[in-house]
Amino acid sequence: MVQTTVNGKAVTLEVDPATPILWVVREQLDMTGTKFGCGIAQCGACTVHLDGTPVRSCSTPISEADGKAITTVEGLAGDDGVLSALQQAWIDVQVPQCGYCQSGQLMSAAALLRDNPQPSDDDIDAAMRGNVCRCGMYNRIRKAIKIAAGTDQADSSAVEGAEA
Amino acid sequence: MSDMTGEPQGTEAPKPEKKKGKWSRRAFIGAGILTGGALVVGVAIRSGKPSERLQKLMASGDNEMLINSFVKIDKDNIVTAVVPHVEMGQGSQTVLAQMLADEMDANWEDVRILEAPGDSAYVSKDIAREYQMPNLKVPEILEPTLDGTLFQIANMMGLQITGGSFSIRGTGQRGMRTAGAAARQMLVAAAAEQWGVPEEQITVDKGIIAHKASGKSAKFGQFAGAAAEQSLPALPKLKTPDQFTLMGKPLQRHDIPAKVDGSAVFGIDAKIPGEKLSYAAVKAPPVVGASITAMDSDAAKAMPGVQQILNMGDFVAVVANGYWQAQQALNTIKLSYSKTDADSLDADAIFARYAKALDEVGDDGGDVETQTGDANASYAKAAKQISAEYRAPFLAHATMEPQNCTAWVKSDGSCDVYAGSQSPLKARKVAADTLGIDLEQVNYTNTYLGGGFGRRAEVDNIVMAVRIAKATGYPVKLIWSREEDTAQDFYRPSATSRFSAGLDDKGKVVSWNNIHTHLFDPQEAPQVPYYDIPNNLVRKVEVPMHLRFGPWRSVDHSQHAFFIESFLDEVASEAGEDSYQMRRKLLAKSPRHLAVLDKVAKMAGWGRTMPKGTGLGIALVPSFGSIVAEVAEVDLTGKKPRVTKVWCCADPGYAMNIDGFVAQMESGIIYGLTATLYGEISLKKGAVQQSNFHDYKMLRMDEAPQIFVEVINGDPERLGGAGEPGLPPLAPAVTNAIFAASGKRIRELPLSKHRIV
Ligand code: FES
Ligand code: FES
């Protein structure tokens, strides 16, 4: 039996304690925002926070979450459903292509900004190099992080919102 | 994949007509009123006679498509664009809606997008009647097309493929814009009739129909019913670019919000309402074509959660109450395989095979693709002769989302299938065929795709899932491990290409000879008609392989662009000419190409003095109707070669959503750079050696170059693709830059094979 909290909600789980957090979250808790990409901690698609620290949930057994708090992409927005500044920046910059890697990208970026509110390019490289984006949206991810950090301005000529 | 730019554009409804293209088409336009008072206007374009020839063309992956574009206008003014293309990240659904809404002068905020399902309007009259929208009845006038040849062919061939950069150029231009323009015209006619004013005095802006003189105005919904009574416009007039209000604008994509909060549903996320899913992990023989001769699964059977172990002959499936449990059990199973002819084939042996085939055809054997003048004779007497051989490896698609599919074969024989496919119709058809049931018995739901790149035009995942589900009788979600995804792909073919070129005594290129291997028809990729070279001989020779191969982003342009543009660089350097200047001369008769080349050179500051150990390389490749030139900047002063900047200029005719187009260029550049630096699938004893991202490497954030993109809207009448054309110029731009920086000529990819720094 494993006791943990997921996005602030306490849960008690009857699972094989060796099962990776990824599959518990997706299959037992029915929260499919966290993605499977490689299963060997190589791509970052499965990134969640464990007590605030980003971990690759495909390679972290649920037993390690016992007594700790898991945060997934579904927990990034506020309780009122208002998107975080980071998520909003992701929309403003139109970051996602296929979108499959983006939950993991957002979780890594969220942890980076919490610890380092104004990261340099090197800081961004170091924090984000574990997250593969096969659609190659690295420039946009970097830009969105900087916008959320307030170190870059959204380029309104590049991306406009829906017109009224 | 065919280049459609020779085909007529958009406005052919509704007259049957003969085309100069490969076959004749018929276009139909129809309108009707739905229960509840919504207006629906549709455009259907179907082929005239489904001759055997046509079937063959379609089966050859020609990527021709049947187009059905619908728009629904509700009484509450909501405009729903029904788009017949899946969303795999190119934003094409948004662009298609944008094109329709612009022609209608609709209010963008009131526009909704609905994906036409692969199991509905395209295949079955009854389901088509219901479509996906509640209460929707297909207008009678459209029924003949829905019932007719359209469905027969669709059924037969399993079409509706999103790929080959066709969606915007084909469906958008011919279908969506026509449907939008027709809807607008009918709404205006209805308003004119009711207000008793001439149609010409009516204006439409952002969903509001107005007559200035009388001060009357109304929203679309008010005339939805009356519009259906109006006669159908024979030939709706499409806007010219100066009239565009939405086309060309960087509107935000409709699918993005769900992709930042975890709510977007990909195939791997599919759920069957009210049902508990079981999960399957699979393993197929490492050598494609082998079968399983023995299985030891004793340990697996005893593992927690395991429900069934299925030896299907060509693969083994473990079904368990969780994917991880299934995969863990699968990992303990020991398998033996039958022998195949490919068992001894190693990576080097393939290129030796190619070399032998090329040697055998000599100077004039093989299949001729292009022949102008007499290239052999011209080469023989050229003042300077240059020749070289190039190679490109097999590549995997490595979509971020591994292959998967969810299926449930029910006791009544019908089947529910959930997957993200580039070809929903083909997916549905193959499910029915595999089970031996009617198409109508397959309920197919398409999801978002976690990357397509050509991989999801294949349907092997669907076949596997329904076979497993048939064996279990309960709902199963099949998920491939990354290892399986890498080892069981439909690979981008490897190839060897040999060139020779002759220069006259003034350094002008007078002959171009190219002979290359191929595994399937490379179509226009090896041709260089835009370069002004008087004597041209391009030939191919087919060399069969046991591996499965298929379209990979930009298809054969991905190899041939590297071959052609690198060799041209060699020719320039042998001629003692700047490679940009030489291309300029060769493009003297291709002004659009030249404009793109000049622009990218300007963006990159071509000709500036570069610091030691750095260099610029240039390449230009037209593909899928778009002309793209790129300049790469490399830095060889560090521990490994780095591509620091890429400048890209593209002429797609007209970029319908400028930001979406730019994003596609960025994406193609990174995908191409990943392949250039690392991409290689190699064989050992007939089996793929790579397995996961540690040995099939991906480009990461810290290696990503800065990318600068400019777009030239060179010909609004001819729309080019976006998803593919950004990729081909990247590899040669990089390798040419390496030559500029170091004098080292790269004739084989990937770069990781070479010692460069
Ligand atoms: S799935 Fe966990 S890092 Fe790739
Ligand atoms: S958006 Fe497709 S993998 Fe990142």
Please explain how this structure is put together.
- The complex is a heterodimer of chains A (164) and B (757).
- Chain A starts with a strand and ends in a 15-residue tail after the last helix.
- Chain A is an alpha+beta fold and 164 residues long.
- In chain A, strands 2-1-5-3-4 form a 5-stranded mixed sheet, with helices on one face.
- In chain A, 30% of the residues lie in helices and 13% in strands.
- Chain B has a 7-stranded mixed sheet. A 5-stranded mixed sheet of chain B has the order 1-2-3-4-5. Chain B has a 5-stranded mixed sheet with strand order 14-22-21-20-15, sandwiched between helices.
- The N terminus of chain B is likely disordered.
- In chain B, strand 24 and strand 25 form a beta hairpin.
- Chain B has 3 domains: 178 residues, no CATH class; 144 residues, 2-Layer Sandwich (Aldehyde Oxidoreductase, domain 4), CATH 3.30.365; 312 residues, Aldehyde Oxidoreductase, domain 4 (2-Layer Sandwich), CATH 3.30.365.10.
- Classes of the chains: A alpha+beta (164), B alpha+beta (757).
- At the A-B interface, helix 1, helix 2, helix 3, helix 4 and helix 5 of A face helix 9 and helix 18 of B.
- The complex binds FE2/S2 (inorganic) cluster (2 copies).
- One FE2/S2 (inorganic) cluster sits at the interface of chains A and B.
Care to give the gist of this entry?
With 164 residues, chain A is α+β, with helices and mostly antiparallel strands. Chain A has 5 helices and 5 strands, in the order E-E-H-E-E-E-H-H-H-H. The longest helix of chain A has 14 residues, at 102-115.
